[in-house]
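ARCHIVE CARD
Drawer: 12
Card no.: 0347
Subject: one protein chain, sequence and derived structure
Cross-reference: see card 0346
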Amino acid sequence: MPRKLRNGLLILGTTLVVAALAWPPTDTPSGGQASRSLALPDAPGVPDTPDQAPDLSSLPAAEKLREGIDSPTGTPDSAEAARTSGERPVASSPVEDGNDSAPQWQVQTVRSGDNLATVFKRAGLSARDVYDVVNAGDPAGQLTRVFPGDEVYLQKSADNRLLGLRYAMSPSRTLHLRRDADGDWKPFVKTVELERRNAQAEGRIESSLYNAGIEAGLSDALIMELAGIFGWDIDFALDLRNNDSFVVIYETLHRDGQKVRNGDILAAEFVNRGERFRALRYETPAGESNYYTPDGRSMRKAFLRTPTDFTRVSSDFNPDRVHPVYGTKRPHRGTDYAAPPGTPIKAAGDGKIIERGRKGGYGNTVVLKHGTRYTTLYGHMRGFANGHSVGDRVQQGEIIGYVGSTGVSTGPHLHYEFRVDGTHRNPRTVDLPEAEPIAEQYRDDFERETSDLLARLDGISPTRVAQAGE
């Protein structure tokens, strides 16, 4: 072979070897996995280990490489001498010297129908990895309940070994899993304090509370919370009138300047049929929270006004009613609330079960005793809630049964009776006993903590509609 051709091939080969060694390696995930490597920010639910590129600062300059190739001594022997003396890229390569860059984080987004096993399988992890993670101890067990849209961050080694996991349990709490010195998983939770701001909204009833709330910018949850606060005083299914109005002051929670969710209602006002109701949220130094009137009376009554969600009142309290089945005059000593079969029925107040079972024309029935003066009856139930028996105590709002049409009944409904000292009273109009007012030991603190909220309620213009969440 001619000398010039041999030298040309040698130079070309050396150039290709140098180029291959100098180019930083890249890892390409196999199998088309639906994941992506991220340079992850330091935020809740997001790993904070940044991607690190290989350090190429010790590589010789291109001019030096060309010198070695173009010089008369650019032979295989001289190339070997250069490699062993540390002048070549091999010596400083993070792959060759065993100092890999930090393992990359990947994020897997939970899809509809996914559980942790399918998420891990998509990431190339094994069933054993799933078992080890969910059995790492509290609160790692929460990973058995992931939801579409959730993001699970995974840190893996070059040989696909799982090294770390992070999962946002809430906007402020992030679950971390990390291996200890023995290789066992250790779960812990990091909490980030959210910034709290106040927002306000007001509206006027034209068709329903829900429609007015949506128009004012309230979420479904805030509308339900508003109805719950005033539900002891106002029957929102029957008592609302056009031009009733409301004002709501509530918390919004933010992280890094971005709103993450709504908080609690802090103060609210509702005007129903010209009567004004106000509620202020107060949390005691012991951490117990409730809603009170401005003078410290609890908004919560000892009894719910209606113990089920109903579509209409099918028969009102009427001592002179003609019975729809028997056709004779028989007093109707309660209120019938029509509702779909299976609608939950709640205990109207704290009490003890004194009857539970079949009761003549009432069908499946529960009777509760509340203290020494009050009893409530719930009739025509389809069935009873599990876990209760005669003599058990129940709390206000606890489910005791389900709407049905057992006994003498013309359709699914709840027959509800309210008795005071053994006398039947109209459940819709009876004066309900008040719950306990704010304790005297907290009275001064209550007035200090709620004075600003009360002033804001006084100062909100009834003609201005504040848009929520802005």
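Annotation on reverse: The mean pLDDT is 79. The chain has three domains: 35-52+102-193, 196-301+440-459, 312-425.
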